[in-house]
Amino acid sequence: MVKTREILVDVARQLFAKGGVENTTMNDIAVASRKGRRTLYTYFKNKNELYRAVIESELQHLLQRLTNVANRELPPEEKLMGYITTRFDAIKETVVRNGSLRAEFFRDIWKVEQVRKNVDMEEIELLKKILQEGISAGVFRMFNVSAAASTLHYSLKGLDVPYIRGCFSDWGVDSSRLKEYITDFIIYGIKK
Question: Does residue 26 surpass a pLDDT of 80?
């Protein structure tokens, strides 16, 4: 059974995506969720807190997809390629699914970053696991797995906005092959 808080977050996400955070009121969310204002305010003090919950929910969805890839029984290089392409796909899908929330995301990137800190650490741990498996299998070489995982994570994270906005036309790479190009660049940069 879906919990009330989850329903409120999902309804808020849909309304934020359709009309933007600024144009959506707490009353709009209460009416659309059929839960009433009192119920809404029981779970969230204000719209900013609800917006934060929407961001957290989207990030948890991303993290779950990445965890699923990291836990698959695959050779380390395939697992890392799967991780990277899944990450790009999930980021793009999140933006497409959230419509005008995209504008809020870019305008309020620091608010998103505050929420994202814990997810960043969890992503780095997933990457460390994959990289360590690669070292153990004799496929990857690196002196410091923690530094490599952090570098890889923040490199991928740095590509999020340009990837979403499609800012890679000057790379001379067909956009349909962009994920493959980036993945190959990363994999062959650490492979023995």
Answer: yes
Q: How far is CA 178 from CA 83, 107, 155, 172, in A?
A: 15, 26, 15, 10
> What are the structure tokens assigned to 144, written together?
């410091």
Nearest to 142 by CA among 85, 79, 73, 189: 189
State the DSSP string of 113-155: HHHHHHHHHHHHHHHHHHHHHHHHTTSB--S-HHHHHHHHHHH
- Bridge partner residues of 140 (DSSP): 191
For residue range 42-95, list pLDDT tens digits in order. 999 999 899 889 888 888 998 999 999 999 999 999 999 999 989 988 888 887
Judge whether 142 and 191 are in contact, CB under 8 Å.
no
For residue 122 the two structure tokens come to 């969890």
Nearest Cα neighbor of 43 from 5, 11, 13 is 5
Rama region for 93: left / alpha / beta (φ>0; ψ in -120 to 50; rest): alpha
Q: In angstroms, rounded to a whole number, what is the distance separating the alpha carbons of residues 184 and 189?
A: 8
Average pLDDT, the chain: 84
